[in-house]
């Protein structure tokens, strides 16, 4: 058993997880990123103290159900796989606070995500999402949502009913019009660049906007019937490309 209760087998090109790893029953962190995994052994269920599990950059087409038996998980990395859905059993992970499902094959956000009542951060960028389920408003602990690089044609209406959100990222979508976000008291940052929009979202004082016509420059104004566009040189703030280990937080 490692002294730091962590095992990192990232980048080993593994096709199978060595079963003896499952004997480390006090393990807290298990990193299996950047391998060729598409299966996990049922013995993984023995790791009931596991809080962080990284399965990103693998070949999973479906989430192994054994993952849903790890009820102490706080952080689950599933990005850069081939997932088209998530199992209903994911609802058993009621301690989950951070979920990464970016760069998969999701055409819709699985409604089971809306049952993760303690979720604080959701990374769902670079999928094929066209909308968000109204049940998302039930996630009253959710503070940051990353939706860049999807197929959203309108700003998701459910986000307008989530006053506790602090960060909203809808960069690189197909949104043409932004409603006012000024009524969201918790909002600190909205990223909306690389959309074919004709307006910037209105926000309350002190909220940072990243995109065209943000706080640095005004929105287009009409002169003699012509629209004069003012572009923004500032590059957008994108969500982290690589995961970083979060601050220690009791589960």
From TrEMBL:
Pfam families: LRR_1
Organism field: Ficedula albicollis
Domain of life per record: Eukaryota
An example Gene Ontology CC term for this record: mitochondrion
GO molecular function: actin binding; alpha-actinin binding
PANTHER family the record matches: LEUCINE RICH REPEAT CONTAINING 10, PTHR48051
Keywords per UniProt: Leucine-rich repeat, Repeat
PROSITE patterns: LRR
Stated name of the protein: Leucine rich repeat containing 10
């Amino acid at each position: 058993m490692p002294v730091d209760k962590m095992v990192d087998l990232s980048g080993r090109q593994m096709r199978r997880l060595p079963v003896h790893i499952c004997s480390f029953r006090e393990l807290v962190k298990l990193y299996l990123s950047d391998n060729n995994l598409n299966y996990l052994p049922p013995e993984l269920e023995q790791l009931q103290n596991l809080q962080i599990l990284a399965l990103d950059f693998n070949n999973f087409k479906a989430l192994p159900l054994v993952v849903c038996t790890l009820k102490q998980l706080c952080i689950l990395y599933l990005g850069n796989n081939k997932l088209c859905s998530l199992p209903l059993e994911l609802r058993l992970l009621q301690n989950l606070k951070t979920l990464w499902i970016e760069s998969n094959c999701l055409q819709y956000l699985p409604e089971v995500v809306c049952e993760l009542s303690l979720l604080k951060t959701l990374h769902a960028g670079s999928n094929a999402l066209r909308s968000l389920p109204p049940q998302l408003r039930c996630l009253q602990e959710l503070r940051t949502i990353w939706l860049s690089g999807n197929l959203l044609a309108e700003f998701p209406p459910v986000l307008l009913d989530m006053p506790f959100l602090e960060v909203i990222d809808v960069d690189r979508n197909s949104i043409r019009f932004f409603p006012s976000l000024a009524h969201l008291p918790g909002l600190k940052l909205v990223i909306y660049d690389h959309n074919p929009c004709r307006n910037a979202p209105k926000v309350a004082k002190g909220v940072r906007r990243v995109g065209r016509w943000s706080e640095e420059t005004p929105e287009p104004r009409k002169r003699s019937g012509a629209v004069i566009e003012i572009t923004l040189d500032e590059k957008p703030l994108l969500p982290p490309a690589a995961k970083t280990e979060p601050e220690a937080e009791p589960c």
